[in-house]
């Protein structure tokens, strides 16, 4: 057994050594620097995770931006805070830049905010075991933000960012934007000045990279009925009431649209009764009613996810037609709200995936394949995907994003930093 174990260890070491021979001297030094800086990287990760930065916590989002400003300025970046108009009611965005004339111009995308607001139970950075940690936003996406910084730090220490153009743009409201169109104007404008966009959202392990993401939009369904005594429900002069009408519509959505590739539509909230109220800012609603009253009002809010504007518009038309049918003595309307566009797969994105695959193979980390477009939700990279070649899913790996107990895979983390570093090095030569 001992000889077998030693032989396996030798084979692994030989494979890694062989792979490293495909890296040049600078690349090998970069990997050493990532290891040398790793404890500082983990300390930075812990620091930013331990600052609550829910999208509505403007002070917290800004505080995380201040930490990154401190760190990026140490490695030669100019930093600034981009404010958004007051009506957006969000903190704004962090930007760090270096400008030069060599290599591809890189636009790096992240976000500072999380889904965990100040009034939710707080989970600090905590080691669960030697390979897993937990904390709010650990993989979505403070782990990715720190990963991108760690790569750039190693490149800077070898002088490999000199005369290169890099813009790092960490949005402050990716999880909950007050107004996507207004809030992303500066983001899109700056992105257009670059050749490649790289987003550091959660990685799906070593073997997959994101070349496409579905878009997301919202919808609100409102129904009304004739309030009456429940004993008369279904009669011609009473009808079905608002809740039955809403239920009919939702079930017909399911029957007629479910199963289409890349299309999903989810009712996230359902309120109904004799009287209802809803606050769109907090997402809180109330309903008054009794079991012996035919419901007068109902409301459903949901999302619609799609790949491409054509699929979105076709789905909306089908949903409108379903809403227009009406049960007896009821009325219904549906309102659609645009959100994040989709990032459609493109030839340039697939070429970028091949480029990353070569990097990974040269490092002995295995093959990287483009992921299923339907496996990823909407992301900020979608706002700029039509203007340049893009890759996403370059950040930290983990599980449980958007939920208590969100984790980050600390065993994979240093190797993901290394692969990102070599990718950035080769793109900027």
Features of this protein?
429 residues; alpha+beta; 6-stranded mixed β-sheet; 4-stranded antiparallel β-sheet; 11 helices; elongated; disordered N terminus
Helical percent range?
A: 25-40%
Number of helices: 11
* Proportion of residues in extended strands: 25-35%
Compute the gyration radius: what is it? 25 Å
Describe the global form. elongated
Low confidence ranges: 1-18
Report the average pLDDT across residues. Answer: 93
Derived structural class? alpha+beta
Oligomer state of the chains in this structure: single chain
The biggest sheet, with number of strands, parallel, antiparallel or mixed sense and barrel status, is: 6 strands, mixed
Molecular structure report:
With 429 residues, the chain is α+β, with helices and mostly antiparallel strands. It has eleven helices and 20 strands. The chain has helices at residues 2-20, 25-36, 38-49, 58-74, 138-157, 180-183, 185-191, 241-257, 309-323, 347-362, 413-427, and strands at 78-82, 93-98, 102-111, 126-129, 132-134, 164-171, 196-199, 208-209, 215-225, 228-229, 264-273, 275-279, 284-288, 293-294, 297-306, 330-340, 369-370, 389-391, 398-399, 407-409. A six-stranded mixed sheet has the order 1-2-6-3-7-18, with helices on both faces. It has a four-stranded antiparallel sheet with strand order 4-5-20-19, with helices on one face. A four-stranded antiparallel sheet has the order 11-15-9-16, covered by helices on one side. Strand 12 and strand 13 form a beta hairpin. Helix 2 (25-36) packs across helix 5, helix 2 runs antiparallel to helix 11 and helix 8 (241-257) runs antiparallel to helix 9 (309-323). The radius of gyration is 25 Å and the shape is elongated. Residues 1-18 have low confidence and may be disordered.
């Amino acid at each position: 057994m001992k000889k077998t174990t030693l032989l396996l260890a030798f084979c692994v070491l030989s494979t890694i050594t062989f792979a490293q021979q495909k890296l040049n001297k600078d690349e090998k030094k970069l990997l050493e620097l990532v290891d040398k800086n790793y404890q500082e990287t983990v300390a930075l990760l812990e620091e930013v995770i331990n600052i609550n930065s829910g999208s509505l916590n403007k002070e917290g989002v800004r505080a995380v931006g201040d930490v990154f400003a401190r760190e990026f300025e140490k490695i030669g970046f100019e930093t600034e805070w981009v404010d958004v108009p007051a009506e957006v009611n969000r903190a704004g965005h962090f930007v760090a830049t270096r400008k030069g004339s060599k290599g591809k111009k890189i636009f790096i995308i992240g976000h500072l905010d999380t889904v965990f607001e100040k009034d939710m139970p707080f989970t600090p950075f905590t080691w669960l075991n030697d390979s897993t940690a937990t904390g709010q936003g650990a993989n979505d996406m403070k782990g990715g933000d720190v990963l991108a910084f760690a790569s750039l730090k190693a490149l800077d220490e070898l002088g490999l960012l000199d005369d290169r153009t890099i813009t790092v743009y960490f949005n402050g409201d990716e999880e909950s934007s007050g107004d996507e169109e207004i809030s992303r104007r500066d983001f899109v404008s700056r992105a257009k000045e670059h050749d490649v966009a790289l987003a550091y959202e959660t990685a799906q392990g070593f073997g997959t990279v994101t070349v496409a993401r579905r878009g997301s939009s919202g919808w609100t369904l409102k129904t009304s009925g004739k309030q009456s005594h429940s004993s008369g429900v279904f009669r011609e002069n009473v009808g079905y009431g608002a809740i039955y009408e809403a239920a009919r519509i939702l079930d017909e959505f399911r029957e007629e649209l479910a199963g289409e590739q890349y299309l999903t539509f989810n009712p996230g909230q359902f309120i109904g009764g004799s009287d209802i109220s809803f606050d769109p800012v907090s997402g809180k609603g109330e309903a008054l009613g009794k079991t012996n009253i035919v419901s007068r009002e109902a409301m459903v809010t949901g999302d619609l996810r799609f790949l491409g504007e054509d699929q979105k518009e076709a789905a909306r038309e089908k949903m409108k037609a379903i809403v227009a049918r009406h049960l007896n003595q009821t009325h219904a309307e549906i309102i659609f709200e645009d959100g994040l566009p989709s990032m459609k797969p493109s030839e340039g994105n697939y070429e970028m995936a091949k480029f990353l695959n070569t990097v990974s193979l040269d490092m002995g980390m295995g093959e990287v394949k483009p992921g299923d477009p339907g496996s990823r939700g909407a992301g900020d990279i979608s706002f700029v995907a039509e203007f340049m070649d893009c890759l996403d899913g370059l950040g930290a790996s983990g599980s449980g994003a958007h939920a208590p107990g969100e984790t980050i895979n600390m065993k994979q983390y240093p190797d993901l930093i290394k692969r990102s570093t070599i990718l950035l090095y080769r793109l900027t030569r």
